Amino acid sequence: MQRLSRRTLLGGGLAAAAVAVTGTPLLSGCASDKKNQAAANLAVKLPTYVRFTGVTPDLPGTDVVLDGFLKYPANPLKAITEKPGDGQPISFMTNIPGAIPPAADSNQFWQAVNERLGSELQISMASNDEYPNKLATRVAGGDLPDIINLPPTTPQIPALLKAKCLDLTDQLSGDAVKKYPFLANIPTEYWKGCVYNGGIYAVPVPRGMSRTTLPLYREDLLAAKGIKDPAPKDFEEFLDLAKELTAAKQNRWAWTRPPISYLRQLLGIPNQWKEEGGKFTSFYEAEQGADALEAGRKMVAAGVINPDSFSAQASQRKQWFNGGIAAFDIDSFVAWNQYYADNTAGDAFSVNMLDVPSQGRPWMGAALNNITAFRKDSKHSVETLLKVANWMAAPFGTEEYLFRKYGVAGRHYALQGTDPVPTKTGVVETGIGLQYVADSTLALYMAGKPDVPRKQHAIQEKLASRLVYDASYGLYSETVSKDGPRLVKVMTDVENQIMQGKKPVSEWASAVKDWLSQGGEKMRGELQQAYADAAGR
Q1: pTM for the model
Q2: Rounded CA gap, 338 and 456, in Å?
Q3: What CATH architecture is 52-210+367-464?
Q4: Domain 213-363+475-536 belongs to what architecture?
Q5: CA 79 vs CA 67, 109, 268, 399, 514: distances in Å
Q6: pLDDT tens for residues 91-135?
Q7: What average pLDDT does range 172-195 have in this prediction?
């Protein structure tokens, strides 16, 4: 499964806040302490994986390819008979990727959730951009909720978890997890990102292949130009295709932004960190790095990228794609479905994804969206909090999943055959962040559009055997935690200046040297040490 680097999202503010909570600098132990902790982590028995077999997929998956469904099962199984809550309010804080939904007193979906849980779910929300600061403030103030959405990139997370969150090892290790069958349905690999301090301190929110990111394209716009198979054999074909789809005078461009990650995959550059013989190498150091940036510079110079791409927000780029201003965007399988949900182009709207040419290597997406921890001094029992998480993880095909994702029939969705088609009210009210408490691995499905999961399943089968994983997944580096976000921003700024022609490609080599001296070498050393400790070397 995935290898995930603990890189961007939260900066030093949360680390400082964690010091305020614990009263001591986090992760200040000596090397032998860290080695002992690595050994303790390695000794943790991960939860037993018990695959849920109550629903049969139309397009069976594997340990990498996701299950696909052409329609929602008729008469979905009601898998949980008792309310998981204890009658008392349960607090939760989370990011919200879209618009903040109506508050509970004016949100019938939220009210229905509270009724089904048997406890009022009090959710503190923030946008994706605002969430890091909000989390840091809550940590610093000692005002944590019962259930906490923690991005895997949270700085100095081991000590924060140890100081403020419940150790769940006794409840989840090995066969103990079977008490919570839908947590047991989460594959073992995802639990590796929840092991700290010699124990299991959180529940994973898995994403797997669904976060693999490649070029998405408007199949309908390409078909209108007679282009049926846009898969390029090399960069020159890729650039020619982009030129063909660009008409600047008509406010149409091939791309929403330079697809730098795809260019790196096309050139076979490693996915974040590569490990060989215990030695780690960053993708920044790849010999082909300058070539990828030169390719991006050529695309910008050729005028095939929307000229506002470097200043636009993600939401604006999505509007360009949906509105036909751009034919290509680079994003994930999750975004593929979201484009259909946000479609403004009518019934002709059709999306597909480009594979990586045979000489390149596609990157596996991040394993986890976040991990979910429980406050150590919560008034609720650990069993109650785990029952709530188990309810949230009920998989596709169950009645619980149908409700959790689509809401109440008649208000939040209408049935089209057996498929729940969201209403406008449903789109507005259901986005309260339940998927960040816990979730099953995602299924390939689009209500009323069986061609979508067919296409998705087909491209995943092509990718599966060629995927490149991030070797740093499950390894903790204090420098990545503390300095990673700042250094990523510096490198991204250099990338953008090179692609815009404001700096020569030759500047990349010196930027990589600076990155190494300012923290990259320390990251490498810490990852190598963590790898060696975990392997018992």
Answers
A1: 0.88
A2: 13
A3: 3-Layer(aba) Sandwich (3.40)
A4: 3-Layer(aba) Sandwich (3.40)
A5: 19, 20, 44, 7, 55
A6: 999 999 888 999 999 999 999 999 999 999 999 999 988 998 899
A7: 96
